[in-house]
Amino acid sequence: MNEKPQKIALITGAGRGLGYETALALAERGYLALVSARRWEDAERAAAKLQEKGYAARPYALDVVHIGSIIALENALTADPARLDVLVNNAGVYLDEDEGLFEVSEAKFRETFETNFYGPFHLIRALAPLLRRSEAGAVVNVSSGYGALNGMGGGSAAYRVSKTALNALTRIAAAELRKDGVKVNAVCPGWVRTAMGGSLAPRGIREGAQSIVWAATLPKHGPTGGFFRDGKAIPW
Length: 236
Ligand SMILES: NC(=O)c1ccc[n+]([C@@H]2O[C@H](COP(=O)([O-])OP(=O)(O)OC[C@H]3O[C@@H](n4cnc5c(N)ncnc54)[C@H](OP(=O)(O)O)[C@@H]3O)[C@@H](O)[C@H]2O)c1
Description:
The structure is a single chain. This protein is α/β, with parallel strands linked by helices. The protein has a single domain, classed as 3-Layer(aba) Sandwich (Rossmann fold), CATH 3.40.50. The chain is 41% helix and 14% strand. It has helices at residues 17-28, 40-52, 67-79, 106-131, 157-177, 205-216, and strands at residues 8-11, 32-37, 57-61, 86-89, 138-142, 183-187, 227-229, 232-233. The protein has an eight-stranded mixed beta sheet, with helices on both faces. Helix 1 (17-28) links the parallel strand 1 (8-11) and strand 2 (32-37). Helix 1 packs across helix 6 (205-216) and helix 4 packs parallel to helix 5. It is globular and about 55 Å long. It starts with 7 loop residues before the first strand and ends with a strand. It binds NADP nicotinamide-adenine-dinucleotide phosphate. NADP nicotinamide-adenine-dinucleotide phosphate (NAP) binds next to helix 1.
């Protein structure tokens, strides 16, 4: 018998919201879910919920704005499981929802970038060696239609620009990792009922997570360097 090894997925910001739902959906598909959250107890609780359902999950503390936290995770994962098939850069903040370009502080702008851009930037660079060991590695950058230059309007400048930068990072990382068989895509989950999306959002959390799961589970020769919602390409 030549059994395929269990696939391994790391999800950031998986203590709640779309991150938790993505971890659950991947675990349901047989992945070992590496459930990370900035507070250890949130990661532990989320992983325990998956384990109670009979799924494979491990908790990790990861604050994506702290390089020391990223290095500690890199070291832990390099030791065990020593491979990564999927990295879901889900952790994100939306700090300037009700502010315009002339109201938002520079501090808030930088704070948004630390999480939404530099988090994925550091994680992709730190974990690329583990992704290269996969048969078919995949990075999913959870972006937003708000980051699309196509139709870009006013308001929420920090959030929008951070996601535009994340989209550019997606293209560059996809181009540079293509030769290693690692796909890198950006996805928009749509407007989803989470703490961030609010109660008026039209989409349920499971539906929103589907866009992320689609990109995480693409076949070996699936698309790379794209921007997708519901498995369909959308304009940058
Ligand atoms: N909801 C929507 O309508 C929508 C639309 C488009 C895109 N998105 C994107 O989808 C992703 C998930 O959003 P969501 O709706 O699930 O939001 P959410 O419910 O507010 O969850 C955000 C998650 O990010 C985590 N996080 C924030 N800063 C972090 C850090 N420094 N280190 C680690 N984790 C951190 C939070 O952890 P804590 O619990 O520790 O705060 C939480 O788990 C985000 O990237 C967001 O921009 C959402």
